[in-house]
Prior knowledge:
Elements: H1 9-32, H2 46-64, H3 85-92
Amino acid sequence: xxxxxxxxxxxxxxxxxxxxxxxxxxxxxxxxxxxxxxxxxxxxxxxxxxxxxxxxxxxxxxxxxxxxxxxxxxxxxxxxxxxxxxxxxxxxxxxx
Length: 96
């Protein structure tokens, strides 16, 4: 069985210094780039806002009744109505 290589204490210290300096340099480089601004919220039409409020009321009613299955909602409730798909996704995306 081959003998392991012996390294002096100075070699170990030098290796750790190189690793630490590389980590500090990488951190500084990552912190140098600014974080992009979040996208502003899109305006929601009055019809979609009313529809979202109705869905929230249905969710609250279902929760009060002990039904945690949720509520089925369609993004377009009737022919010719606004398509509220994006507004629904933006509003309820944290509930998944």
